Amino acid sequence: MTTFPSSLSAPAQRLLASIQSNDARVGVVGLGYVGLPLAHALHRGGLRVLGFDVDNGKIQALARGENYLKHLGTELTTDLQASPRFEATSNFDRLGEADVLIVCVPTPIGIHQEPDISYILRTATAIGKTLRSGQLIILESTTYPGTTREDMMPAVMHAASDRAHTLASGRDVFFAFSPEREDPGRKSHTTSSIPKLVGGLDEASTKLATAVYEKGITTVVPVASAEIAESAKLLENIFRAVNIAMVNEMKVVLHAMGIDIWEVVRAASTKPFGFMPFYPGPGLGGHCIPIDPFYLTWKAKETGHSTRFIELAGEINTAMPAYVIDRVAEALNEQSKSVKGSRVLVLGLAYKADIDDVRESPSFELIELLQHRGAHVEYHDPHCPATWAGRRHDLQMTSVALDASSLANFDCVLIATAHSAVDYALLAKHAALVIDTRDAMRKYEATMGARLVRA
Ligand SMILES: NC(=O)c1ccc[n+]([C@@H]2O[C@H](COP(=O)([O-])OP(=O)(O)OC[C@H]3O[C@@H](n4cnc5c(N)ncnc54)[C@H](O)[C@@H]3O)[C@@H](O)[C@H]2O)c1
Q1: Topology (CATH level 3) of domain 10-226
Q2: E strand or H helix at 378, and its extent?
Q3: pLDDT per residue as tens digits for the range 212-251
Q4: How many CA atoms lie within 13 A of 365 on its CB side?
Q5: Which of 393, 360, 395, 357 has its CA nearest to residue 379?
Q6: Which helix (H) or strand (E) covers residue 200, if one does?
Q7: Looking at ligand 1, which residue's alpha carbon is closest to its atom 21?
Q8: Which atom in ligand 1 lies closest to the alpha carbon of residue 105?
Q9: Sheet holding 25-29, edge to edge
Q10: Helix (H) or strand (E) segment spanning residue 76
């Protein structure tokens, strides 16, 4: 537990005491993949939690105890619904009721891969309108280094400028950054068990934010500044993007040599040090890895530097869907069929196994590339019954059934996501051709012969 440093201002000391005694009320702004489990973890730690979201559908679902994020299970929302210490609202005039505000809003990129921090700035302005002494504001949304100090804090203070003479950052109001490291669907970790980095704009802010997270998270790691915490998150995601690109590149090269990348990764993984496995795939998906690295690329230009690793990884990873479709074309060709006119079933719409998150999923790109080449495309995903309009795609499709008779209608099944609920034995038995980008069919290799192609 955080000690009580005497150097803290009176408002900071009061806030720290109220956090430690569970009197403080925490507002979580943005109740999505990041905000909802965080709200639950802090609530379970004993704090009073007030959730905010612009999406009134989510507020109403929470009031009914329904979970709109299926991978989190229903217990989470029934816990919150039953508690007098939790409430959710879309009334942003109530932001002033919270002693601590944790901002978990989206940070997408624009069509020219420029950061879009407009959600953060809108939230900052709303917070500023009701800002009062003794409030701590923590940003969790992934962003470029400097956002908390150079963008968010000034936006909050600007909106509170009529009270500027009474509110000084670091004395009366406090700001910190704490990156979210959520990995939806991962069973080995929960929000509470993933160590939490915390970096404030000043020492008092770091101490206060650390005290908040210590309520619901087992390991909290204070770092020297908000910029270090912001950059650490980007390093984690860039590390993944670059390594995935490397293994994707190696997949293409090894395929040309007739060598199986999956067996190579498994073989290299036997080394007990100095190696970490990354797996190839049909392209990058999810809200983080395809997007966040480009926040640094944009910011780096300010210093006259380029981010060559990020650009190269982006180039290789975004070329993967087209590579996979070339492999589909080759495999159909082997069966004397063309892509044009073929019926292709894309298996898996979500960007990774066993979740329903389709954000930035390469499956959309695969479907469009196939359609562009004249294929008739359907999809099956047990977690995603229908598509809806996204940032870049609006396919207006619904998931088709997966059974022996439906499989008989397709010339080819393209496995884009290896959901564990799918019956792969059924595919092995009834599919005319399977293109496997996830190594989901290995145990049927012998029985399928030329009907199974890895891509
Ligand atoms: N999903 C992940 O696995 C993950 C992991 C690490 C970091 N992040 C980062 O966390 C942030 C949030 O991501 P997410 O996955 O939770 O997104 P999400 O889309 O699931 O949730 C964001 C929520 O914010 C709400 N919202 C939008 N504008 C708002 C506003 N002005 N005020 C209040 N609420 C608003 C949306 O309705 C939505 O419920 C992003 O910066 C993301 O990069 C996400």
Answers
A1: Rossmann fold (3.40.50)
A2: strand 376-380
A3: 999 999 999 999 999 999 999 999 999 999 999 999 999 9
A4: 19
A5: 395
A6: strand 196-200
A7: 32
A8: 24
A9: 86-89, 48-52, 25-29, 100-103, 135-139, 173-177, 196-200, 220-222
A10: helix 75-82
The Å distance, Cα 33 to ligand 1 centre, comes to 6
The reply to whether 104 belongs to the active site is: no
Q: Calculate the CA 431 to chain-centre distance.
A: 33
**pLDDT over 80 (residue 3):** no
Mean pLDDT of 124-147: 98
46 Cα: distance to centroid of ligand 1 (angstroms): 24
Give the pair of three-digit tokens for residue 444. Answer: 């049927």
Residue 188 near residue 114 (C-beta atoms within 8 A) = no
CA distance 379 to 27: 39
Lowest average pLDDT, out of 68-82, 117-131, 155-169, 189-203, goes to: 68-82
Ligand 1 centroid – CA 376 distance (Å): 34
C-beta of residue 392 within 8 angstroms of C-beta of residue 364: yes
Which 8-state DSSP code applies to residue 401? P
Atom of ligand 1 nearest to the CA of 55: 37
**Residue 239 burial (CB < 10 Å; 0-12/13-18/19+)?**
middle
Residue type, 450: A
Q: How far is the CA of 29 from the centre of ligand 1 (A)?
A: 9
Determine if the pTM surpasses 0.90: yes
**DSSP structure class, residue 186:** -
What is the side-by-side strand order in the sheet with 343-347?
376-380, 343-347, 412-415, 434-436, 452-454
> Angle between the 75-82 and 35-44 helix axes, to the nearest 10 degrees?
60
**Of the options 3.40.190.10, 3.40.50.720, 3.20.20.140, 3.40.50.300, the CATH number for the domain spanning 268-454:** 3.40.50.720
Q: Using the atom order of ligand 1, give the atom closest to the CA of residue 183.
A: 3
Return residue ranges of the chain for CATH 3.40.50.720. 10-226, 268-454
Q: 285: Cβ below 6 Å to ligand 1? A: no
Q: Are 48 and 88 within 8 A, CB to CB?
A: no
For 328-385, the pLDDT digits (tens) are: 999 999 999 999 999 999 999 999 999 999 988 999 999 999 999 999 999 999 999 9
